[in-house]
Amino acid sequence: RIAIESIAFWWHSLPPLSHRPPPKAEDTMAGLHRVVRGREFSTGSSVGSRPSTSTSINMLHNGFARRRVALDHCPRLVYAETGTARMLGGPRRTHASEGAVNAPLSEEAMPLFVALDKDVMESSTSLAYPEALSAGLKALRVLGVYGVSVDLHWGLVEGPEPGEYTWSGYRQLLKLVSDYGFKINISLCFNSTPTVPLPKWIVHEGIANPDIYYTDKAGGRSYEYLTMGINDVPVLRGRTAIDLYMAFMRSFKDEFGPWFGNTITEVLIGLGPNCELKYPAHPLDKRWNFPGIGEFQCYDKFMLATLQACADQVAQPSWGLGGPHDAGSYCLWPHQTGFFHQHGSWSTPYGNFFLQWYSEMLTRHAEEVLLVAKDVFGGLPIRMAVRIPGAHWWNNTASHAPELTSGYYNTASRDGYLPIFKALSEHNVRLRLSLAEMRNHEQPPQAFCNPESLLAQQLTVAASQQLPVTVENQLMRFDEPALSRMESVLFEPVQSHAIEVPPPAGLTFHCITDEMFEPNNWRAFKAFVIRVRERAEREHGRQTTAGGKHSSKDEAILT
Question: Has 276 been annotated as catalytic?
């Protein structure tokens, strides 16, 4: 309670960052321009005595952590000179080079994973349709599919009280998958879905304190994911959100540790809705529909306190009162708002300040969660992965509004993926990108979509930071144009004048459902898998490890 009610006081009680006089207003504007143009991003400071927006966020977070009230029932955090937190008496959160997961495992030339449907679990203890799933897995294995991707939901595993985990249902599922010889990629889903809420005790806490959720400017709450504003604030029965994520990861490792390497080869760390690194700007409820721009999610009291503190640091306190007042609402189009239209306020000094802060907060959130993930999984023979969203609509406009509301300060004149991917490269993760099946000409022209260019940009920036990449389809499609597009993404390199862009390291196809096994869809998917395997063998110059010639019994299963 003290931590909640006194947070604003603590922000403003931080000691001055400099004894020099504050800058003039015009100096502040010039400093912000330099920050946004990248000359001082994450390292430099602005004109005068004030730091850049990025530096302000770092200093304020560290200062707050040093001054945070240590509750008797909460583990205390201390910060080293680098700003990296560790638990007193616990393992230190290490740099990527110190505690990274083991080097990439050997696998076939172009590993193809198929994702399980999201309703595969009936409860925390049982599967929804084990017989049908078993038949589908058998057909996929005979076809030569390399692995299966499994979503593992926090809300299904953790019970009505903190730390009570029930793994029996997922153990049954993973055993069924592994019995067919598949490799398994796990997604640790800290988000809710329309059918799986967050853990019951957290839902109960949210009734008493709804500011634990992301909030829009109208006060609407997003129940998909906990706000990053409580990552280091112990408001969940004396624990922070980071504490809860760490405890869940440790329980998962304790339960399935012997499976790592031989069966479980990758763990994707969920960092937002749909396990993607983003804000819930385009919620699954009725507030948003395509191709709406979405809304900024920064109005819970914890995010607002951080925004206000950063605005104070650049001597513009009015900028910390909230997000842009003229950013419109979820379903509007860019030209209908004062903020996102071609000459809107997104390109003003205030817009630059806010978007820089909003994106930096998302980057910091990813780093904080990945640090504890590295504590848990460091040294184990698995990869860690991060899923990147593909907000491709309005990408052919100046502001790229859906990307801005998602947390990516990416516009026609600024690469917003570079600073985030640069930060992720420090954690030895692999990126999973979507949009693999989409072509520009298939999209509604009024939405100015550009999925091909957005995917190419993400692939190029990832290559510049030496981040390995896999791809996946955003929509479940079995038509030939979509399958051909996925094949093209896998084998035809992105053209870049300055950077050699390697092909993706694999594909995750969504997903195993009844629709996949309809006769026409199954024939198309079977032909696609065979083409991909044969082309991978030719281009990589070696045979893949699964499949091969089929027996007459196998051919019957495939048919």
Answer: yes
